[in-house]
Amino acid sequence: MVSLVLTSSDIFRALFLALSVVWLVSDLAFAKHAGITRHYKFDIKMQSVTRLCQTKNIVTVNGQFPGPRIIAREGDRLLIKVVNHVKYNVTIHWHGIRQIRSGWADGPAYVTQCPIQTGQSYVYNFTLTGQRGTLFWHAHISWLRATLYGPIVILPKKHASYPFPHPYKEVPIVFGEWWKADTETIINQAMATGGAPNISDAFTINGLPGPSYNCSAKDTFKLKVKAGKTYLLRLVNAALNDELFFRVANHTLTVVEADAVYVKPFKTDIVLITPGQTTNVLLRAKSKTPSAKFAMSARPYATGPATFDNTTTIGILEYEKSASASKSNHKNLPLLKAKLPQFNDSSYAMKFQRKFRSLATAKFPAKVPKNVDRRFFFTVGLGILPCSKNQTCQGPNNTRPAAAVNNVSFVQPNIALLQAHFFNKSKGVYTTNFPTNPPFKFNYTGTPPKNIMLSSGTKLVALPFNISVELVMQDTSILGAESHPLHLHGFNFFVLGQGVGNFDPKKDPAKFNLVDPAERNTVGVPAGGWVAIRFLADNPGVWFMHCHLEVHTSWGLKMAWVVNDGKGRKQKLPPPPADLPKC
């Protein structure tokens, strides 16, 4: 019999070998779940496009309108090289992407980067972490996003399934807004004269206005479906200034996801979608081929006092005919119309928003911060500012319309906020004294105060890493109550509750949903009402928050949060890439 004596070095070697195997297995497991790197090239170039019987040159990506679809899987890394061949400064924002520790790739001009100037390029480098669903990309400077936009489709990881029946086919439906005139000229003239910018001439579905507009029947989006099949429509509102109602005649839709977060499925005939929001819906085609075509219609939900583009874009849902049906029949099928709510139906809007709930399952939990470290109360709305020097404005007493958060109309700096923050050069660029509450209390949704003059400045809120924030956003009736879709960069937030009138800090929090609230990146602050959200400040950087109605952003309805680095290596913002554009 042989006795086996193990020395300490033998034990150490065996232990090291065992650990190495564990590391190797975990590395392989990680590699299996880690994504791949996908490369895209975006050439920003002018393209001649004809709509509504008029041809104009527009800014595009790769000559395409709408722009190319980006498709990737959760966990993938994206390297998107943007080359600017046009006369305008350009930046691209990857709307709704969390950009965890990759703030340099977020894209808003003068917030996370200086713009890409003519003849220059920049590589946006980021990883899709913990997100799957529909988002979109768009220009984030001036009004260039009028034509610079396209969908982002993030598929689940390989071998992961949807938490709803797998569709037969997936179709992006991207809503846009079209002007006959040049949009840069429109906003520049409005800012120079202190007037409201001209409204759009049409809405579009995947770049096409449809048969309700002058000579546009040939420019109609058509969706061909097979009887009995289920289709996933990936809805994106890329319009500049209008929330939209959407309906498919004689069909019910099932909402399954919003802003790239799965929701508890619910059925609806009509979807309301604000600029900046995305919504995935299942459309089940009828079991037998009907002898009709069906309108897919979208038109504005408009609450403010200003004029708006009160037109309807129409796409057509057509059933594929069986081989036995003759073609001549198919051409003459009646088109059934889709009835939409009144343009100002705010009670429908409120009811619809309340239907969104997180799945809140073990696999897809709703990680609502239960304790709150910092509370903020922000008024959002309109007001006036004095006209700039040597300028005559159209408002009373030489004033111009403006917009603000907590009475501060945001002034865009001329170097990027994130660089100023990272290199400790904030002096003269921004201050961190953004007000936690409005400077004075008034009946926010009642009779407006006599003095509606705003202040202006580049003020930010500074937050320590990983603290929980509760924010109540309150609409005001100054220059008219209006719904404002507020978008927060760098985070998703939970929508705890909303209501009509003034927020009551004593009674309303008792009604907050802390169990399965919707998790979003853009939420409509109700017209003449309030919405309460929570988020965890777990992403170091400078994060823009603004109204996604572009006219209000131009007028100053925006601010930013600075989230400072944490202590750990993975809680710090890495240095900027070498090709970050210079101002």
TrEMBL record:
TM region(s), chain numbering: none
EC number: 1.10.3.2
Annotated GO CC locations: apoplast
Database matches in Pfam families: Cu-oxidase, Cu-oxidase_2, Cu-oxidase_3
Entry keyword Metal-binding: yes
Domain Plastocyanin-like per the UniProt entry, residue ranges: 44-158, 170-321, 434-566
Keywords: Apoplast, Copper, Glycoprotein, Lignin degradation, Metal-binding, Oxidoreductase, Repeat, Secreted
Protein name listed in UniProt: Laccase
Organism expressing this protein natively: Gossypium raimondii
